[in-house]
Specification:
- The chain is an all-beta fold.
- The chain is built from 1 helix and 32 strands.
- It has one helix at residues 169-176; strands at residues 2-10, 13-21, 41-45, 52-58, 61-67, 78-79, 96-99, 105-112, 119-126, 137-138, 148-155, 161-167, 184-192, 197-209, 216-219, 225-233, 237-243, 245-247, 250-251, 255-256, 273-276, 286-294, 297-305, 316-319, 325-331, 337-344, 349-358, 361-362, 366-371, 379-383, 386-390, 400-402.
- It starts with a strand and ends with a strand.
Length: 403
């Protein structure tokens, strides 16, 4: 694996970006309107029926369809945006899909604008059993030609919609004042299309976020967001922060939750993974996994907090070989964590997995998939208590691996 420093003017200013460059042949010529040809595929499972919904973009259109038999057959795709628009399909910055308790589908994506590295967060709603999505709307309400990107989407069973993103409006203002701001801000939007609340609020959450790493967001037992992201601490220490919510869109104080002290004047394009476990004795444990590349702390890490990030467990350094990256976690009824991540062994990409209860109580890591060619990040879904790996390989059919 090689590293290449590239220049990215992300969210409106120049920032050095550290990106992984993998010397693998793609050899894929594929531009049909089908899932196989998509660069990235996002999935969600209807907990009531086990139906798998997928979202994917091709030729400036977003599509959704579903499968009831683990991908053997799919429904006819529904085109979400009838008017073509650019749709970001990078690994860290991709379309998102969610579902509520009655089968309504929620979609969010990022649309790059005419000026380089400016964008808007977009949203559409597909009512249960409908064949037509609502006209896309813009979630960020500032109307500025600046960056609004790296969106994350969570929806409650009752239809409360939470969308978080990295926002460039403070950077825009600083530039107007002749200043240069190298970080972005975290924002949270809220709406509910079922109750008729169809204008997204925009709530400022925190400043000082790294400009180009995905946010991890999930819901706690109160159905309120928990967010984890790569933050810039002190003199360019790119570690991780966590916040929970005191009320619907009112954040608690941000907590620093990783301490590898990776000092880099750049952006790793490596967001964290987040999992909120069911409460035990009124204590809700938040599980976290992340990548860092500090001189004495390279690879993937895991830790948990029982008090909303105010203090952390001992950190478990669970993988260092082959530049492990892009972790994902999921838990089902047995209370054990399924953890996966991607590596590159010099010839092909591989997916490794571990299973455990947290801290140092983990199984031995094993390889469960490999592929030579263009691949996506690994994701985990649960269907009726069974966990599956979904790992999209460009040009290849949809495939799930039972874990």
């Amino acid at each position: 694996m090689k590293f290449l420093l590239v220049i990215l003017l992300s969210l409106g200013s120049a920032n050095l970006v550290l990106a992984h460059q993998h010397a693998v042949p793609t050899g894929v010529v594929c531009d049909s309107i089908k899932i196989d040809c998509a660069k990235k595929v996002s999935t969600v499972v209807d907990a009531n029926t086990g139906r798998i919904w997928v979202a994917w973009a091709i030729k400036q259109h977003l599509y959704v369809n579903f499968t009831d038999n683990l991908g053997a057959d799919f429904s006819t795709p529904i085109q979400v945006n009838t008017q073509a628009e650019k749709i970001s399909t990078r690994g860290e910055n991709r379309p998102k899909i969610a579902i509520d308790g009655v089968g309504n589908i929620y979609l969010s994506w990022v649309t790059p604008l005419a000026k380089r590295f400016t964008s808007n967060v977009r949203f559409s709603f597909l009512a249960a059993n409908s064949q037509e999505a609502t006209a896309p709307i813009t979630v960020n309400n500032d109307g500025l030609l600046t960056g609004h990107s790296f969106n994350e989407l969570s929806v409650t069973t009752s239809g409360n919609i939470f969308i978080s993103w990295l926002d460039g409006r403070a950077k825009f203002t600083a530039k107007k004042q002749g200043k240069r701001l190298r970080t972005s801000e975290l924002y949270l939007g809220y709406a509910n299309f079922i109750t008729g609340d169809r204008q997204f609020t925009n709530r400022y959450i925190e400043k000082g976020t790294c400009v180009c790493c995905r946010i991890a967001m999930t819901l706690d037992e109160r159905n309120l967001p928990v967010m984890m992201w790569r933050h810039v601490f002190g003199d360019n220490y790119r570690d991780h922060a966590l916040t929970t919510m005191a009320e619907k869109i009112m954040p608690n104080i941000m907590q620093r939750v990783s301490f590898e002290n990776w000092q880099v004047n750049g952006c790793p394009h490596q967001g964290p993974a987040l999992l909120v476990a069911p409460s035990i004795n009124k204590t809700q444990r938040i599980h976290m996994a992340w990548y860092n590349n500090a001189p004495d702390a390279k690879g993937l890490f895991y830790g948990y907090s029982d008090n909303q990030g105010k203090s952390m467990s001992d950190t478990y350094h669970f993988s260092q070989q082959n530049k492990p990256e892009h972790p994902a976690m999921l838990m089902v009824n047995d209370g054990k964590i399924q953890l996966v991540w991607r590596e590159f062994d010099g010839q092909s990409f591989v997916i490794r997995t571990m299973r455990g209860t947290g801290n140092k109580l983990w199984s031995k890591a094993k390889v469960i998939a490999h592929h030579q060619g263009e691949v996506d990040y690994p994701y985990l879904i649960a269907i009726k208590g069974v966990i599956y790996l979904h790992w999209h390989r460009v040009g290849q059919p949809f495939k799930l691996i039972k874990l």
